[in-house]
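Late entry, written up from scratch paper. The run itself happened at the end of the previous shift, but nothing got recorded in the book at the time, so transcribing now.
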Amino acid sequence: MSTAPFITPLESSRTDAPSGLRIGGDWTLPHYASLEAEVLALRGTLNSAASIDLQDLGALDTAGAALLVELLGSQRLAQLANDAPGLASERRALLQAVGNAIADAGDALPAKRIPAWREFFGQIGQAVEELWQQGVALLGFIGMTLAAMFAILLRPGRWRITSLVAHLQQSGLNAVPIVALLTFLVGAVVAFLGATVLADFGASIYTVDLVAFSFLREFGVLLTAILMAGRTASAFTAQIGSMKANEEIDAIRTLGLNPLELLVLPRVFALLIALPILTFIAMLSGILGGAVVCALSLDISPAMYLAMLQENIALKHFVVGMAKAPVFAFLIAVIGCLEGFKVTGSAQSVGERTTSSVVQSIFVVIVLDALAALFLMEMGW
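Output as recorded:
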């Protein structure tokens, strides 16, 4: 049977503070609201010498014990729980446990505020560490891919011709229109800007050389690689990532097949074939765009345009541009496949890894192209 809780002040020689309290009844959650009002009224009015009588204390739960801690303090309540006569052992243990827990929470040090400069450098360090880990993972995956490539080159029975042709169509043939259109427009823009600037020096005729040099050495392969990074690397990551999320890769391993040989190598070989061809198309389209602008703005006929190309542009510039294509193709394909294998199993992870593959591919392509340009310039090639 429930007993109403009470707090009875004992007689005091002062009018503003009781000399003690007699606490009894059921200090439980149903009586929390009424008890809280009395505790708030009495809190702070008791002196350290006031006597506390807990002999009539009835039922007790953690809510009531917390109110007693708020009224008397954790240290004083713990002392009363040890010394109070007639207090049941289970109530004594509960009072001690709640008092100690609240005391420990009160003694906990507040979280230190990290200075802005430390947080800034900490984020930089975290980014550098993540970049290092990504680089190590990429190098390891490149090694695994090269080993698998050399392992099957002399074993035609393990070639995935159907998969190779399908990826070749997807990443190569279907990309021809966008690559040709983009490089044609860029070639026209470069020729227009070159003609505008060189006209001030009376050297508009050299616009032909500007367009040819830029597209044969840099723009042709670079624009194509960036397009493939955004178009093909993302597709590779999404395809493999979806298979990883659906546990299809685990099923492939269960069947005794190698996911690297089944999923990665056909994509790598397809891009190794497609990107050089697309680069050649990009070079032709860019030069054609420059020829259109020269014919319309500079009165340079197509025959004269071709004659100047043949006379002034050496074959080595074409070779330099084409030599970069297989390297870029291999890296784009490997990064796209590696990010697909990093998917953890959710749609959000697929999106994050797809974005990461595009960013990494474009970054690697531009950095390698810049390093190659500096090296070739120093070598005089």
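The chain has two domains: 6-107, 158-379.
(Scratch paper discarded after transcription.)
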